[in-house]
């Protein structure tokens, strides 16, 4: 699967993806970041490294991760979307989830539905939009914040 992602990144640049899914960059390859409010562009694309970085909020990555964050989907779904929108001849087959991954996925989805059962993060200035964007959830039984960090259904858990 990693080879397919690398091939996709060779076929479509990060700059092309930012301009297609978001908006054109200025002459310095900068634009206002779509992930936080700002007046001066701090979101930058490095053509040489084919990466993006926002110096305001600290987020960054490759073109596929940009589309995934922007569309609030997995990197696999983002890759499939890019292939379709750019009419590329690549296929991405989803791997079967093992029983443990299914259990964890279901746990994360339940926690995401229960995020409104705590106001811990809202008190600290995080908006509902931000919590949804990053898939943050709340485990009612453990009274813990759940933060997914990969498409393999792995997560961090902190006490609130």
Give a written overview of the molecule.
This protein is of the alpha+beta class and 160 residues long. It has two domains: 2-85, DNA Primase, Chain A (Alpha-Beta Complex); 99-159, no CATH class. It contains seven helices and seven strands, in the order H-H-E-E-E-E-H-H-H-H-H-E-E-E. It has helices at 2-11, 14-21, 63-71, 75-85, 99-113, 120-123, 128-133, and strands spanning 30-31, 43-46, 51-54, 60-61, 137-139, 144-148, 155-159. Helix 2 packs parallel to helix 3 (63-71) and helix 3 (63-71) crosses helix 4. The chain is flat and about 50 Å long.
What topology does this entry show?
Blueprint: H1 2-11, H2 14-21, E1 30-31, E2 43-46, E3 51-54, E4 60-61, H3 63-71, H4 75-85, H5 99-113, H6 120-123, H7 128-133, E5 137-139, E6 144-148, E7 155-159
Antiparallel strand pairs: 1-2, 2-3, 3-4, 5-6, 6-7
Largest sheet: 4 strands, antiparallel
Integer tally of domains: 2
User: What is the count of DSSP helices, taking H or I runs of 4+ residues?
Assistant: 7
How many β-strand stretches? 7
The CATH topology of the largest domain is DNA Primase, Chain A
Q: What is the mean predicted local confidence, pLDDT? A: 87
Order of helices and strands: HHEEEEHHHHHEEE
Shape category = flat
User: Taking Cα atoms only, what radius of gyration do you get, to the nearest Å?
Assistant: 17 Å
Spatial order of strands in the largest sheet? 1-2-3-4
- The rounded distance between the terminal residues' Cα atoms is 36 Å
